[in-house]
Amino acid sequence: MQSTIVESSVYYPEKWEKGPWQFIREYWSDQYNYLIYKRIMDIVTSLIVIVLVYPWLFPILVLLIRLDSEGPVFFKQQRVGFLGKTFWCYKFRTMHVNQYADSRRASSNDPRVTRIGWFLRNTCLDEIPQFYNVLMGHMSIVGPRPHMIKDTKEFSNLINNYQFRNMARPGITGLSQVRGYRGPATSFESIFRRYQWDSYYVRNLSFILDVRIMLSTCGLMLRSLFYKSQPVPMDTPVFKQEPLVSAKKIA
After folding, report:
1. 161-198 pLDDT tens trace
2. Which of 172, 174, 178, 173 lies closest to 236, judged by CA?
3. Is 86:138 a contact under the CB 8 Å cutoff?
4. Statement: the pTM of the whole predicted model exceeds 0.85
5. 115-123 and 207-226 are packed helices; what angle lies between their axes, rounded to 10 degrees?
6. Pick from 163, 158, 149: which is nearest to 21 by CA?
7. Chain centroid to CA 76
8. Closest by CA position to 184, among listed 215, 138, 148
9. Tens of pLDDT, residues 29-55
10. I want to staple 104 with a disulfide (CB 3.0 to 4.6 A). Which of 100, 118, 161, 238 is the partner?
């Protein structure tokens, strides 16, 4: 039986150690202007996408999904979001209808994923309906990706203070995704590294960081279209480096 230990030297602001709720009040106070402007940006951007992109892209994707497999076009699932609150997250359906959708993560060569589903996942087009979640305030364009409830419970048991990543509103894209940690988390290392970059984002919120993440996301989408045979590099040196602790496993 293998147990996993995470070194306790992960950096958190001192205020967090005094108590999450005290930190939340001071955190909101320090980031008030940024959070207001970011919400305005989220609303404006999501409205632009909904008005200009949805009318022509949705019919195409809806037709492809319906021709490829039976079942609903959209898939909704409860995810854990801001401050640990749950919400209904919307996506285009990428799998055959199955009973394990809320309990089993997708894996490489997962037989549940449809042909058009692989394309939607690789290009991140399955996330397009989440601009509705952004408009409703459940999500932001940039932030830690929201996990399903089962994964959140499992990851919280593996990593101390895992709820720290929920200090930021969950995003359609995030720092860990543009650093190469996309798709299912199949190992402890991938779970932990995602958490490191998510917590880094929470500690270093800024418009510059948000814009760089969005531009990097666009680059990854283009790469997935034109360079399918080349995997996305892990931890590419795009952003300012900050020391991240390593995870270690012991038997």
Report:
1. 898 899 899 999 999 989 888 777 778 888 899 999 99
2. 178
3. no
4. no
5. 140
6. 163
7. 15
8. 148
9. 778 889 999 999 999 999 999 999 999
10. 100
